From TrEMBL:
<dbReference type="InterPro" id="IPR000873">
    <property type="entry name" value="AMP-dep_synth/lig_dom"/>
</dbReference>
<keyword id="KW-1133">Transmembrane helix</keyword>
<feature type="transmembrane region" description="Helical">
    <location>
        <begin position="84"/>
        <end position="103"/>
    </location>
</feature>
<dbReference type="InterPro" id="IPR042099">
    <property type="entry name" value="ANL_N_sf"/>
</dbReference>
<keyword id="KW-0472">Membrane</keyword>
<feature type="domain" description="AMP-dependent synthetase/ligase">
    <location>
        <begin position="21"/>
        <end position="408"/>
    </location>
</feature>
<keyword id="KW-0812">Transmembrane</keyword>
<protein>
    <submittedName>
        <fullName>Peptide synthase</fullName>
    </submittedName>
</protein>
<dbReference type="InterPro" id="IPR050237">
    <property type="entry name" value="ATP-dep_AMP-bd_enzyme"/>
</dbReference>
<dbReference type="Pfam" id="PF00501">
    <property type="entry name" value="AMP-binding"/>
</dbReference>
<dbReference type="InterPro" id="IPR020845">
    <property type="entry name" value="AMP-binding_CS"/>
</dbReference>
Length: 562
């Protein structure tokens, strides 16, 4: 298990300091805006906290939490929906030096419970439904000694947040945490493996704030629409107003585009974070209605590769010099690289469509990126012999201040994901790619998704790009069927929305002919049609190829028996 003592950075750093600075420099600017209700005319009514109010509110909560034992180093499960209380509680926990444990509820109840049990948290702050879950499934919460209800308490014990919160404000003496001290445990969704608790230190958060600000040129006074709650936490530290969107954050692919557009126009949103799935849905609606979004000057998309077609579609809604930036990273290392829509559409798009991979830009300042030999086993110590020759595909590894050093109580995963290099650590992204002569990273898919046949190894993103060129194909997915090292390559096809799939035999012939046009797909001879691909729960964009592989094996078995 990783311990903070492995790192020796003892600088005093507390990420809540950013909020306090903003409260002094721009006290009356709105920090968080929340859609509270609708009036009789159906218009949305909003409630908000200014930076000064948010700083005061988090101070009052910090005083109260400290008073009931939620103090420095106490692991605290936070199960609160995006709201004013959510922001105040997160910064209150940072101020006291407690360690928020955050699990994405979209991963499903049982997986979420497993993560919560694994965290061995001592405290729980949650809405009534969270405490109902604690009451009905007590074996997952045996280590909890302090429980605070956000909202009305029903039939369980413990104080409510209203009771805990100190009524009279006194500036709270912020904990003098160090850069190497644990600030939070954030669980991955486990899209391509088990969900893991990632150690975030105050130094990692601090580096992320600085790198995001500098990379994208974000300044105080901007207005953000963060459609993924975790990214919303950076807004107060960056001096941006966070507009909480009226949406289910676990289902971005089903978002109501009218509500997103309404929020952008109502508040003059200048910055938006969106997964490719949300970008596609809003872009499709906006294009159909001829909508323009003059306030937006920057869109950051991440979570899965955004296709050039998706980027081009949403770009049609923007005006003047507004840009879409694709960000590359992971919970364990974020951000790693970024890329602007101009270069994507004008320079790398054609190469991506030809099967070179998806370009995800150049490494941001302060991040080292290398491409190493593909290996499924652990690599304990870094050596330069691991690095692949320029232009060859291998595993992407990264090193930098915002790269986390380990997982919570998962030594085996630490061994598989971390390579020690003196006092620093390289994180193995689990992604495959290559770097060109201009220093750009080309993403070729997950390492676990590569398909090794008797003729060689196929990578998902390059192969799929060939088939995605067909106008009837919404997306494709390469999977392997059969024993390891001798798999049969299969391309699964999801048709464009509204395509009823008539003349699939003719379409299959066309797709096989398309495959013959490229050396990377010329040996693929099996195509299956799937109604709707299973996708990840966080961004609704990453394809669950593991599930598709199981489905494909069953389909081929059925066809062979007929």
């Amino acid at each position: 298990m990783y311990s903070a003592t492995e790192n020796t950075d003892r600088r005093v750093v507390n990420v809540a300091t950013y909020l306090r600075k903003m409260a002094r420099s721009q006290p009356y600017q709105r920090a968080v805006v929340y859609p509270y209700a609708k009036d009789r005319q159906g218009r949305i009514a909003y409630t908000h906290l200014t930076f000064r109010q948010l700083d005061i509110e988090s101070d009052c909560m910090a005083q109260g939490l400290d008073g009931i034992g939620i103090s420095r180093g106490v692991r605290t499960i936070l199960m609160v929906k995006p709201s004013l209380d959510f922001f105040a509680l997160v910064f209150a926990l940072f101020k006291v030096g407690a360690v928020p444990v955050v699990v994405d509820p979209g991963m499903g109840v049982m997986r979420m419970l497993g993560c919560l049990k694994e965290s061995r948290a001592q405290a729980l702050i949650g809405i009534p439904r969270a405490h109902l879950l604690r009451t009905l499934a007590p074996k997952y919460f045996t280590t909890i000694t302090t429980a605070v209800t956000v909202g009305p308490r029903w039939f369980w014990s413990g104080p409510t947040l209203r009771q805990v919160r100190k009524k009279q404000w006194d500036p709270y003496p912020m904990a003098q945490t160090t850069a190497d001290e644990i600030a939070a445990i954030l669980f991955t969704t486990g899209s391509t493996g088990p969900a893991k608790g990632v150690f975030y230190t105050h130094g990692v958060f601090d580096a992320q704030v600085r790198n995001i600000r500098d990379q994208f040129g974000i300044g105080p006074g901007e207005i953000d629409l963060p459609t993924f709650p975790l990214f919303a936490l950076f807004d107060p530290a960056l001096g941006m107003t966070a507009i909480i969107p009226d949406m289910d954050p676990t289902k971005p692919a089903r978002v109501n585009p009218e509500k997103i557009i309404e929020a952008i126009v109502n508040h003059g949103v200048t910055n938006m974070f969106a997964s490719p799935a949300l970008l596609n849905r809003v872009g499709l609606y906006g294009t159909d209605k001829g909508i323009k979004l003059p306030p937006l000057k920057r869109i950051i998309t991440a979570g899965a590769p955004a296709t050039p077609a998706n980027i081009e579609q949403f770009s049609g809604l923007l005006v003047e010099d507004a840009r879409i930036h694709t960000g590359y990273g992971a919970t364990e290392a974020m951000p790693v690289s970024a890329f602007g829509s101009d270069e994507i559409l004008n320079k790398t798009r054609k190469l991506s469509e030809q099967g070179f991979g998806m370009c995800v830009g150049r490494p941001i300042t302060g991040v080292d990126v290398r491409i190493i030999q593909i290996s499924d086993g652990p690599i304990a110590i870094w050596t330069d012999d691991l690095v692949m020759p320029e232009g060859e595909t291998g595993e992407i590894v990264v090193r930098g201040e915002q790269v986390t050093r380990g997982y919570y109580e998962r030594p085996r995963d630490d061994r598989l994901a971390k390579i020690h290099d003196g006092d620093t650590v390289w994180h193995r992204m689990g992604d495959l790619g290559w770097m060109d002569k201009k220093g750009r990273i080309w993403f070729c898919g997950r390492k676990s998704h590569r398909v090794t046949t008797e003729k060689g190894t196929l990578f998902t993103i390059p192969c799929e790009a060939i088939f995605n060129n067909h106008p009837r194909v919404f997306r494709s997915a390469l999977v392997g069927v059969g024993p390891k090292g001798h798999k049969h390559a299969v391309i699964c096809i999801e048709l464009e929305s509204g395509d009823r799939g008539k003349d699939k035999a003719g379409l299959k012939t066309e797709l096989l002919e398309l495959a013959r046009t490229s050396p990377i797909t010329e040996d693929i001879d099996t195509i299956l049609f799937h109604r709707a691909f299973p996708v990840d729960i966080r961004h609704n964009s990453k394809i669950f190829r593991e599930k598709l592989a199981v489905w494909a094996a069953k389909q081929l078995k059925m066809e062979s028996s007929q």
